[in-house]
Amino acid sequence: MAVHKLNFDDAFDEVLYTLIAMHCSLEDYRLAYLLNKNLGISLKRKSEDLDYSSGLASYSIFEWEDSKQLITWNLVSNICKTQIIQKADYQSLFNTTQTKTFYLLPEYKAVNYFLKIDSEFSFSKEKFILNHILSMPQIVTAYSINTNQLQSKENLIFS
């Protein structure tokens, strides 16, 4: 009997994207406004947040689809703090609340926001974008992340 082997290596190409980490203490809507103003983009809040960890964690996400260059820009928060209410047990009279912190990319716990650009730019274009982000006084620091070394890259699939 003949053996047929299917090779799917070429069918599922890895999606190319640039990921920029940003450290700042701004609210998400203020950061989106500043990025729009300084980079000439039009990020808008999506109607639904990213929902992970069985509904315990949701992350705000802003998106802009550049139809001229066929590039999708996403600004997503990395930190989600939720309050978990623990019911009173027989030893206590009151319910207690506990704040639990979840991270979109746990290996980058110090990062506040990620800017994901669904297109691989040349080094000079990426450096241009980073310089514009770093020129904003509200941004403490920003840097590119090597996406090949990410352990939780499945969290960056937004569709």
Give an overview in words:
With 159 residues, the chain is of the alpha+beta class. The strands form three sheets. The chain has a six-stranded antiparallel beta sheet with strand order 2-5-6-9-1-10, with helices on one face. A two-stranded antiparallel sheet has the order 3-4. A two-stranded antiparallel sheet has the order 7-8. The mean pLDDT is 86. The protein is globular, with a radius of gyration of 20 Å. The longest helix has 12 residues, at 28-39. It contains two helices and ten strands, in the order βαββββββββαβ. Strand 3 and strand 4 (57-59) form a beta hairpin. It has a domain at 18-45 and 54-79 and 105-147: TATA-Binding Protein (2-Layer Sandwich), CATH 3.30.310.
Order of helices and strands: EHEEEEEEEEHE
Rounded Rg: 20 Å
What amount of the residues lies in strands? 35-45%
Helicity range of the residues? Answer: 10-25%
Give the C-level CATH assignment of the domain at 18-45 and 54-79 and 105-147: Alpha Beta
Overall pLDDT metric: 86
Shape: globular
Main sheet characteristics: 6 strands, antiparallel
Count of extended strands? 10
Number of helices: 2
**Largest sheet, spatial ordering of strands:** 2-5-6-9-1-10
Uncertain residue ranges:
none
